[in-house]
Amino acid sequence: MKFGPNNHGEHCPEGHSTAATIATISATLAADPDVDSSAVEIRMLGPVVLLEGYITKAADRDKIIAIAATIVGWENVQDRMLSRFPPP
Q: What region holds the BON domain (predicted)?
């Protein structure tokens, strides 16, 4: 991590740190009882949130993306989640 006034890579446009942004998204997902995000990893690449891992319901994808987008904006969300549906 770099310190000093020119350290813009570790912060979003609003000035939140990467860790704070990830923590906010994680907490918001955990607070939603209708979404299973237990196998989803949240990472950041600059201002872009990367959503990686597995979902078990198709509806979870849209909700997870929407929750992340409310925090960082639609243009800053990259969906890399894979579907892993349980056997019938």
A: 17-85
